[in-house]
Amino acid sequence: MTPTVAGQPTATRAAGGTGTPAAACSFDKNTAFVTQLQTLINDERAGNNLPKLSVNAQLAAAAEAHAADLLCSNTLSHEGSDGSTPESRVEAQGFDASLVAENIYAAPVNVGSPQTALDWWLGDADSLANIMNPNITTFGVAYVSSEQSMLGGYFVVVFAKP
Fold this sequence. Notes:
This protein has helices at 31-46, 57-73, 86-92, 114-122, 125-131, and strands at residues 28-29, 54-55, 99-107, 138-145, 153-161. With 162 residues, the chain is of the alpha+beta class. Strands 1, 2, 3, 4 and 5 form a five-stranded mixed beta sheet that branches. Strand 4 (138-145) and strand 5 (153-161) form a beta hairpin.
């Protein structure tokens, strides 16, 4: 069974148990959602006397690759369809991290928004701890969606410290 995030909707892999390869799956990106979520997370940190995080392109690439994998394989998990972990995905993008954390959220396209993702994370102890971790200094945010995906739209945030 694929690990999932407690309280989030669950999905199973596509027929055959292997999911759809990312190369055969099309999806849309929403840069406005990415920017909004970056701002919401940094505002939440600032409101708790924590420094704002800097955006990192390598972490954003790791987040987007995982979001696309989740969408294309119809899953919601911190483990990639290839067995990857947040740490291995960050390393694959060439980012040398001493600390990595990841938040994921999925919701139907007409329901999910940067605010609904943040609200869910603020109500989840592990996700909240990632957002408020004082050791985190940088992050990357991604959002991908498809009407053909079981869960619709996926937000992934990768937090790290070099």
